[in-house]
Design goal:
It contains three helices and eleven strands. The protein is an alpha+beta fold. Strand 5 (68-74) and strand 6 (77-82) form a beta hairpin. The chain is globular, with a radius of gyration of 17 Å. The relative contact order is 0.20. The mean pLDDT is 94.
Length: 185
């Protein structure tokens, strides 16, 4: 009988290093989409706070710890990412969907992070503008992504079907930044 082995779509691609940047895979145990029902934002925020110590963050922000973060992912859309699945009480106030197998989470770290991502997204990710705790749903190399600045670097969430493409485009940008840094002044 054939036995299937769960494997990340980026397992054979990462880590990638170029210049001062490093791209690695993050492997949260759960990624859950949470969409509050109309008028239920406050009750949902209270339920999340009671169950997980996380309240709904404002637009463009993320809240929590690496073990459990709630990330704004668009108008009335949030993602609970980390080592926990949402408490059952959350479902009384929001549509809850397990997306764990549908997304890939990467972390880009190093001194050239903003320069790498400047080649891939129209956002201003300068640390003075896009600080730790900021989050944005944006286009990244012609695909939809959710970017979150953390203390460790920039977290990049991509749909699983775009994982190989995303890693290849980020790696190309990393190599470009590294090559440019090596040019004489």
């Amino acid at each position: 009988m054939v036995e299937l082995i769960a494997k990340s779509p980026v397992a054979d691609l990462l880590p990638v290093e170029a210049g001062s940047c490093r791209l690695v895979a993050c492997a949260p145990a759960a990624i859950t989409a949470i969409a509050p029902y109309a008028g239920a934002e406050e009750a949902l925020s209270q339920a999340l706070d009671s169950a997980h110590g996380l309240a709904l963050p404002p637009a463009g922000r993320a809240a929590g710890t690496p073990g459990a973060r709630l990330i704004w992912a668009g108008y009335r859309q949030y993602m609970l990412v980390g080592e926990i699945a949402p408490d059952a009480a959350v479902a009384a106030h929001a549509a809850v969907t397990d997306l764990s197998d549908g997304w890939v989470v990467l972390r880009l770290e190093g001194a050239g992070t903003e320069s790498v991502l400047a080649r891939l997204t129209p956002l201003d990710l300068h640390p003075g503008v896009f600080r730790p705790g900021h989050a944005a749903r944006t286009e990244l190399a012609h695909m939809m992504a959710v970017l979150t600045r953390t203390e460790e670097g920039m977290e990049i969430m991509l749909m699983r079907s775009f994982a190989r493409w995303g890693v290849a485009r980020i790696a190309e940008a990393m190599e470009s930044v590294a090559a440019q840094a090596g040019l004489p002044d």
